[in-house]
Amino acid sequence: MNSIFSLGRFLFAVPIAIFGINHFVNLSKLSGWAPGGTAGVVLAGIGLLAAAISFIIKKYDKLAAVLLAFMLVLFVALIHIPSYMAAVDIVDKMNAMSGILKDLIIAGASLLYAKFIAADPTYIGR
Description:
This protein is mainly α. Helix content is 82%, strand content 0%.
């Protein structure tokens, strides 16, 4: 049963890594509306990839989980909520709301990871 639970760490890390890779693959598209432009998109992509790698190798994973949660809450406040407020079309509003909920879910899961799963308490503590 523990091996099934251990799989959860990878099911959490792999989509985050894919989100990070997508920041580089879609750099020109994302740079136009992201805060900080190209630099902001690159920094976010690096942060997502670093968090995913940290979860997989279990090094600085508690710090990575807390920083990931913070970054995602910033995404909600700086990107998704303004997109929701500016949207006129119902499809655009639904897409923005999906982004809000997705990032809040992942932020919450990151904090749960930090509390109950993280193996390396360096910089954050127990």
